[in-house]
Amino acid sequence: MTALNKTLPPQWSHGNPIDVLGDASVERYAGAVEIAAREPQADGICVILTPQAMTAATATAERLVAFAHLNDRPILASWMGGAASDAGRRILNAAGIPTYDFPDTAARAFALMWRYSDDLRALYETPSLGDSIEGIAPDRAQVEKLLQDVREAKRTLLTEVESKQILAAYGISTVSSHIALSEDEAVKRAEAIGFPVALKLHSETLTHKSDVGGVQLDICDTDGVRRACRAIKQSVGERAGTQHFLGVTVQPMISREGCELILGSSVDAQFGPVLLFGAGGKYVEVFKDRALGLPPLNATLARRLMERTRVYEALQGVRGQKPVDLAKLEQLLVRFSLLVIEQPWIAEIDINPLLVSSEQMIASFTRPFRNAAFTIATSACCNMSSASHTSGSAASASSTTIARWRWWWNAAIRRRSNRSFLASAA
């Protein structure tokens, strides 16, 4: 700012954009560009010339040729004035400085350049597939045994408790959930947890619990627990059949303050597992605010996935709400992506809503989708853990490719045995 004050008249804009005023001489233009080129916070320079009676458009272009090859930032020019400025445009183009008829076109070019460079950085990010994430090693053996037991039982859905065990094995905390096979057992579980509680259908065959009346919330006493058990059993019997009712799960009620997000994964025929992140809740299909990414993630890729959504602004704090701990949310996404990439038996997971605030991050409800002949559907409520933050070069990016080809090879073997599964949380 001091250097510009010395170079420009007192009436200059004193901000960005730098207005050199209509009577700017060749030296004033050159001086302002030279100062901007030294500014460490400037990522690029766009020089705009609007011809006035005293403007030397061609001479100014000749003077700017000296800045054509800045080492660390691009320089663009908007040489307005139509045919009267053709000579200046030819000089700039010959020197390698792109020219545009209007400033908005130059600004769009800057935006495309940024997007291109950002995409390149994302491409060269190499997520780590190490044995642990910040000191917590996933219990892969436990998950593999659980999924093997489910397959041997010829089941295609995971129960809520089984789903939470898988999330816990990857260091993702969950809301405690306890199976109760009778009213008396449900009452004991509720009293041990403390009121209020929520009761949900326990079933190995039904995934959309709310569709069959399988969810009862804000239960405040033992009589309410008994009424909820009977209501769930009766509703499931009427809408689906009593054979689908195995009991209920009892869990504490959680605060619904904060932002509702959706976090999920499904298998694409060409890319394999694909992650989804965005605004969740009951209007998820109305607002359609979501972004897609490929696992595995590191902290940088997780942050960029979040930044591509509109709800990201709300996560930073709005209307007096405290901001969400975005670093912890990154960690949750990294752990989730590691689970997805390492467990190809799980074909789909859908957590909606994932409740996040300055105080908590909990997957309050997850719902499976049936889009495969055989599916494993999981359900869970999760809290936060940690993740690693790594990056790599283009040469080391091959590890991600290898991991994805390994997924494809394993998936192909499983498809040969007619065992393609889907996982989601409810």
Task: Using brief descriptors, characterize the structure shown.
alpha+beta, 3 domains, D-amino Acid Aminotransferase, Chain A, domain 1, 426 residues, single chain, 4-stranded antiparallel beta sheet, Rossmann fold, Dna Ligase, domain 1
Shape category: elongated
Percentage of residues in strands? 15-25%
From the alpha-carbon coordinates, what is the Rg to the nearest angstrom?
Answer: 29 Å
Given helix and strand content, the structural type is alpha+beta
The tally of beta strands, per DSSP, is 12
Write the CATH architecture name of the largest domain.
Answer: 2-Layer Sandwich
Q: What is the highest CATH level, the class of the largest domain?
A: Alpha Beta
Write a brief structural summary.
This protein has 426 residues and is an alpha+beta fold. Helix content is 38%, strand content 15%. Strands 10-9-8-11-12 form a five-stranded antiparallel sheet. A four-stranded antiparallel sheet has the order 4-7-5-6, with helices on one face.
